[in-house]
Task: inverse folding
């Protein structure tokens, strides 16, 4: 049962379908203590999960060779998950799932398939048959990681019926319009060779878009044309300290804004840190201010909930909590951690 003032969140992990792989957890926003409430089995490697706007359905990709996306109903009282059904993504290693602002479509990116899917949402939150699929082509600068397209995320725009796809393999952010379930290419933004665009974060104002680039550990800032939705590149910034020498294990992963929009956070794997950027309110340009160890190895994903930042450390099997200083955005370790096998995605309930 939920405790008073407890913040609830779901955690996706790498695990077999025979073991719990999605966990319902609780966070005490007073001291950062966390607990596991229950686990849900039956889905393999739910490496990315998300809730719909009403928070009564959870969607999860199954990152495997024959990819799937599943819908789970959320019990309004216990928050227990019940499988509504699954759909094949017709691609391998799906690694991101998102829901349209209207809640009528679900989008999936397939890392090793090079394809992006759209699925209509039924009245009960289950997924209908795939309505559209686009296939990316080409390759990038790095032969070891960019031998083919690798769509890594599909993010609904803040306005208009558009989604933006980060393709790590071809160094592109591709914008698609969707109407009646059909995806149609709208705009394309190129990044420097070998960047490896991974995830996006819109500034709360909607004026700027920030892309974390996995392969060269940078953030790219774009100005957003509100009418056309086109992106104008502004600047690239490193996510690592100047005095640090990056190695082959160093890759940037996730990116999120604080609710106030003054602070931007990015996770670094290898360096195993969260970098804090302060955002200039007139230009939108970030300035790196601090690096905080995540207290574990390989922080693939993190989330902001209950006034705290929670870091999912995949390779050390723990989630750590941090208080966010409201004045300067710095992260203060609470000293609390939660053991979870290979945690890779956190989806908080509001």
Result:
């Amino acid at each position: 049962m939920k405790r008073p003032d407890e913040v609830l969140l779901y955690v996706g992990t790498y695990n077999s379908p025979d073991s719990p792989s999605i966990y319902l957890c609780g966070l005490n926003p007073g001291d950062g203590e966390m607990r596991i409430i229950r686990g849900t089995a039956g889905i393999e490697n739910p490496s990315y999960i998300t809730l719909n706007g009403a928070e009564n359905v959870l969607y999860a990709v199954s990152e495997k060779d024959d990819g799937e996306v599943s819908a789970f109903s959320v019990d309004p009282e216990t928050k227990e998950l019940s499988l509504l059904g699954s759909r094949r993504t017709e691609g391998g290693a799906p690694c991101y799932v998102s829901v349209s602002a209207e809640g009528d479509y679900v989008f999936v990116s397939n890392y090793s398939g090079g394809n992006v899917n759209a699925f209509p949402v039924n009245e009960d939150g289950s997924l209908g048959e795939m309505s559209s699929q686009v296939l990316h082509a080409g390759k990038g600068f790095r032969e070891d990681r960019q031998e083919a397209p690798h769509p890594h995320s599909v993010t609904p725009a803040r306005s208009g019926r558009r989604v933006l796809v980060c393709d790590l393999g071809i160094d592109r952010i591709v914008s698609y319009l969707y109407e009646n379930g059909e995806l149609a290419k709208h705009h394309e933004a190129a990044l420097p060779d070998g960047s490896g665009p991974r995830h996006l974060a819109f500034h709360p104002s909607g004026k700027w878009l920030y892309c974390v680039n996995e392969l060269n550990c940078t953030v790219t800032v774009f100005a957003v044309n509100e009418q056309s939705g086109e992106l104008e590149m502004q600047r690239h910034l490193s996510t690592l300290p100047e005095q640090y020498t990056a190695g082959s294990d160093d890759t940037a992963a996730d990116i999120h804004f604080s609710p106030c929009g003054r602070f931007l956070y990015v996770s670094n794997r290898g360096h195993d840190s969260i970098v804090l950027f302060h955002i200039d309110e007139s230009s939108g340009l970030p300035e790196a201010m601090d690096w905080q160890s995540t207290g574990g190895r390989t922080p693939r994903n993190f989330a902001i909930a209950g006034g705290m930042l929670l870091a999912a450390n995949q390779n050390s099997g723990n989630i750590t909590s941090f208080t966010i200083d409201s004045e300067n955005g710095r992260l203060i370790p609470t000293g609390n951690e939660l053991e979870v096998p290979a945690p890779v995605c956190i989806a908080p309930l509001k």
About this structure: The two ends are 17 Å apart (CA to CA). The chain has a mean pLDDT of 97. The longest strand covers residues 182-190. The CA atoms of residues 201 and 210 lie 5 Å apart.
